[in-house]
Write a structure and sequence with these properties.
455 residues, mainly alpha, globular
């Protein structure tokens, strides 16, 4: 059996198995009692499975509504949206994909030893995102060396984002010692200038999270109510019958109410683990506060996250219909995790900012899916991992970090404009990183504004 087959066999069990096992091992290393370490791992696995089931159910519920809405708007686009699952399937089938584990692990170890990061990335399943960057950059540049360099750049960015988000995640969700070093949040970099402009507009500087809305509008701010309203509006826009519209409303409302319940398992898993890790580090490693990098579903108890992603579904469909040159209809990727996660972490859960930023930046992902359709289709045909419909192409309507991947790919060709653009984008990331080091919890400034208003 070759190394690729071994890696594929290990990955085949899924993130819901791999990450809990790793957490159990780390828990034992940090001195947790075996029973508590196993319980943390099992609760984490339960959280991931429960959250995945809820996400799949939400996608299954709103997908047909989105398709119906597209049908009645007369959209007919050639690129089939296969979502992140399709992208992951064809990426793992690429023979060089498993080599990016080496890129991820070596960079993480070196940065930890050099004290350039405090994030230990345990989200190994999502190394496929690194491999996908490598493949896309290789297709654009023709240079395998540059593909690995681009993967390394992405790994560094992800770890530094993990450092950025950790204090905010602790404040927002109460999770000690964990973070999200996921490249899907990179859209926060492009969002940051607009978010900065919003600082000068009073309406955006109030608290617009679910808790503050509950004080203002009561039952309408409850996740179950907001989900039902969103589902009903989406169904009626898709010309559902009253019965089917009510069914979708109840379904989306129920799923929105289930998300915080599923997220409680993350709390039960990560609170004792994070506390034990923190105590271990304070005792054995002076001056270092290590955090464990996990996948984005640990943010799932945020109502603002789900409201943003579901509200933006019809917005994505509308943009697909009117944007010149767009070739992809959002279906499998219609729930845009990038906008949700990036917006949440950038704004500290300010729902109004998240929605406005989501509308502004939605076209980025449609054009990204359009641009990379050729590469996705080529990889799908080469690997045979999925079937490409005859006369069509496949792509991903909410592709992660399309701007970064695009600029890195063209830079590998020696394109001067792309090189300048990449330098500017990385400089903007550094600026955002420094902003978060200075003010690590953006939601705090809205609390200050609220206090000032009530004086």
């Amino acid at each position: 059996m070759d190394w690729n087959s071994i890696v594929q066999a290990i990955l085949g069990v899924g993130a819901q198995v791999l990450i809990p096992i790793l957490i159990i091992i780390l828990g034992l290393i940090f001195g947790m009692k075996p029973s508590k370490a196993v319980l943390s791992g099992l609760y984490l696995g339960t959280g991931f499975i429960g959250m995945t089931m809820a996400i799949n159910q939400l996608t299954a519920a709103v997908g047909p509504a989105a398709k119906a809405l597209a049908k009645y708007t007369g959209i007919n686009l050639p690129s089939v949206d296969f979502g992140w699952t399709g992208a992951a399937a064809i990426t793992w089938a690429w023979p060089l994909a498993f080599t990016f584990f080496v890129v991820e692990i070596v960079i993480n170890v070196v940065m930890l030893l050099m004290k350039w990061t405090n994030t230990m990335n345990a989200d190994m399943w999502n190394v496929w995102g690194l491999a996908l960057t490598g493949y896309l950059v290789y297709q654009m540049s023709g240079s395998l060396i540059w593909a690995y360099i681009a993967g390394g750049i992405q790994a560094v960015i992800s770890l530094k984002m993990g450092d950025m988000w950790a204090p905010e995640i602790k404040d927002m969700l109460g999770y000690e010692g964990v973070t999200v070093p996921h490249i899907e949040a990179f859209v926060a970099v492009l969002m940051s200038p607009v978010n900065k402009v919003m600082d000068y507009i009073p309406i955006f500087n109030r608290k617009w999270d679910a808790a503050s809305l509950k004080r203002k509008i009561g039952v309408l701010s409850e996740p179950v109510t907001m989900g039902a309203i969103i589902g009903l509006v989406l169904a009626l826009a898709g010309r559902y019958s009253i019965g089917n519209a009510l069914n979708l409303a109840i379904t989306t409302g129920a799923i929105m109410a289930i998300f915080p319940v599923m997220a409680k398992f993350f709390m039960d898993a990560l609170t004792p683990f994070g506390t034990q890790m923190s105590n271990f580090m304070k005792k054995h490693v002076k001056g270092r506060d290590f955090v464990i990098g996990l996948d984005w579903p640990i943010l799932g108890q945020s109502t603002e996250l789900w409201v943003t992603m579901v509200v933006l579904i019809p917005v994505a469909i509308l943009f697909a219909a009117i944007l010149p040159g767009n070739t992809i209809l959002p279906l499998a990727g219609v729930i845009n995790y990038c906008i949700g996660v990036g917006g949440l972490l950038l704004t500290g859960g300010n729902l109004l900012r998240m929605l406005v930023l989501g509308v502004i930046y939605q076209p980025l992902f449609l054009y990204g899916g359009t641009y990379f359709a050729h590469s996705f289709t080529k990889l799908a045909k080469e690997t045979g991992a999925i079937t490409v419909p005859k006369g069509s192409s496949v792509s991903w309507s909410s592709i992660e970090a399309p701007d970064l991947r695009f600029l890195m790919g063209l830079s590998g060709r020696g394109n001067i404009m792309a090189i300048v653009g990449l330098i500017a984008l990385l400089a903007l990331f550094v600026w955002l990183y420094l902003q978060f080091k200075k003010n690590p919890i953006p939601a705090k400034k809205y609390e200050k504004s609220l206090k000032e208003e009530t004086k």
